[in-house]
Write a structure and sequence with these properties.
This protein is mainly alpha-helical. Helices cover 53% and strands 11% of the residues. The chain has two domains: 47 residues, no CATH class; 30 residues, no CATH class. It starts with a helix and ends in an 11-residue tail after the last strand.
């Protein structure tokens, strides 16, 4: 049991020495990973959120979402002025 504990301490100590000795390089690589991940996320959102059709409606006005060329735009008015509580 003591030998296992000593071996794990040696491994953790070696990892810690590597991190301390190479912290500038690791920080640079970590920043690069963050930039690449952000860029991939932006590209994925740009291409995957396209062509979402669907209809949007609003009472007493116009509602549209995204690219309106393929969406249904519904314009309605309240049946009575009392129905529109925003006035």
């Amino acid at each position: 049991m003591l030998a296992d504990h000593t071996a794990s301490e040696a491994i953790v100590g070696a990892i810690w020495q590597f991190v301390v000795g190479n912290k500038d390089t690791l920080a640079w690589l970590g920043g690069g990973v963050v930039v690449v991940a952000g860029g991939l996320w932006a590209v994925a959102k740009f291409f995957l959120d396209r062509d979402k059709g669907g209809s949007v409606s609003a009472v007493g006005g116009v509602a549209a979402r995204g690219n309106v060329s393929r969406n249904t735009i519904t314009i309605t008015s309240p049946a009575r002025p009392e129905d529109d509580r925003r006035l």
